[in-house]
Amino acid sequence: MSVGERKPLSLVSKICFGLSGFLDMPWTVFGAYANIYLVEIAQLPPLFGTSVAFGGRALDAVCNFIVAPLIEKTDTRWGKIKPWLLGSLLLFAPMYTLVWYDPDVVLEGKLAWYLVLYILFTLAKTALAVSTRTYVMYLSPDSEDRDSATAYRGLFGLVSMIAGIAIHGQIVASYTKVQIGPCANGTNNPVNTTNSTMDHALLAEEKTGYLISAGVIAAITFVCILAPVVGTTEQRDNARGGGTLCTVGVRPSGADP
Q1: What pTM, to 2 d.p., does this model score?
Q2: Mind listing the GO biological process terms from this record (predicted)?
Q3: Would you give per-residue pLDDT tens digits along the chain (257 residues)?
Q4: Taking the chain, what is the end-to-end CA distance rounded to the nearest angstrom?
């Protein structure tokens, strides 16, 4: 079938592709709360917490130049982009959840834990970001269809950023609101050890809130990014004659609006 005879991209396909914009949800929450979590909840040295938060952004930009050529060279029976979407998604969801888990180990063990997880998390996120933006080139040969699908992705991305902050804030707040009680400041507790025990219990509750929030956001992201994998068709012949379409329109994912 020639390009002119092809059917226009359906609304369902545009929505399924647009749902990939929900990748912005965990990245927005991570950018807003990672440093706070590492310093106040995981109780790591401030310098390390700041280095991880900003280092992740730098690593994300570097990974773009590594992942894009690898995608360009991919050619499987399941397509060029879909294997990357599914593979990186299967790595991204658990990695995002685990970066909000505070292991009960010594400080050196925590440093190693977060360093490894943040590297894997950033690699998976970058692979997803590059794959989803590149995938639009394989949805349709019609530039208007591709522009429309990209607009849906931008809309869902904006919604996901707002929703992510709201979901995370509400879940964490539900586990920390007990600190507002009359005993939170220790005025009704004559024994200092009781205050220390209470502080430890409150911190444990807050850790639980962060972990549950991460699980919920990871699940939402997983379902939304799975949508273009199962709800769209990769038209591989769209790129024939181009040769560099995997890098067209791809910007560093750290530069998301």
Answers
A1: 0.80
A2: carbohydrate transport
A3: 444 456 788 999 999 999 999 999 998 999 889 888 998 898 888 888 777 767 767 777 777 778 878 887 877 787 888 889 999 999 999 999 999 999 988 888 888 888 888 888 988 988 998 888 889 988 888 889 999 999 999 999 999 999 999 999 999 999 876 554 444 444 444 444 444 454 778 888 899 999 999 999 999 999 999 999 998 888 866 554 444 443 333 444 444 43
A4: 38
